[in-house]
Amino acid sequence: MRLRTILLATDFSDCACAAFQTAKKLGRPFGAKIILLHVVNEYRVEFLAEHLKVEPESLIPELRERAQEQLQAFIKHCDPESLEIESMVAVGAPFQQIAVLARDLAVDLVVLGGYGQRGRAPLEEVFFGSTAEKVVRLLPCPVLCVPLGKD
Fold first, then answer.
1. In angstroms, what CA-CA distances link 82 with 34, 105, 111?
2. Each residue of 138-151: pLDDT tens digit?
């Protein structure tokens, strides 16, 4: 398998940083491009809009801009070295956006942290499944889930 493009989905957590390190190690021998994706969760946008009493669409430009700034800080923090890195921000359900973009971009590998900012949430995962599990079910390409400290 030749890795030309790796999609790394991030929520800016330490686990996502470990996944970034792993993606770099896997992509380096092939000169692979890493596409770093953050998905602004549509449910959080709706919650915030309801709290602020505004339309959800009015919040999206600022949330996208903040996410792009966080992506740049994440890249700097996790030491991108010399691999080609492209960053993207999407809005929607994280697992759906990751799957759609992975298919649309015809990536060779998707890399995710084993769990996100909230840490392990066993009760939620029992009922709804993790983002990583949902992505694995939707994609025909390999998906690598990297736990914290396993870079």
1. 11, 22, 19
2. 777 898 888 876 44
Reading the block at residue 54, the tokens are 């505004």
- pLDDT, residue 80, reads 63
127 contacts: CB under 8 Å, gap ≥ 6: none
pTM of the predicted model as reported, rounded to 2 decimal places: 0.83
Count of beta carbons in the 10 Å neighbourhood of residue 105: 15
Residues 6 or more apart whose Cβ sits within 8 Å of residue 14: 148
pLDDT of residue 55: 95
> Residue 146 forms beta bridges with which residues?
113
Phi-psi region of 28 (alpha: psi -120 to 50; beta: other; left: phi over 0): alpha
Q: CATH: 1.20.120.80, 3.30.70.120, 3.40.50.620, 2.60.40.10. Which one for 5-146?
A: 3.40.50.620
pLDDT tens string 33-42: 999 999 999 9
- The conformational region for residue 79 under phi > 0 = left, psi -120 to 50 = alpha, else beta, is left
Q: 36: burial class by Cβ within 10 Å (0-12, 13-18, 19+)?
A: buried
The domain limits of the chain are 5-146
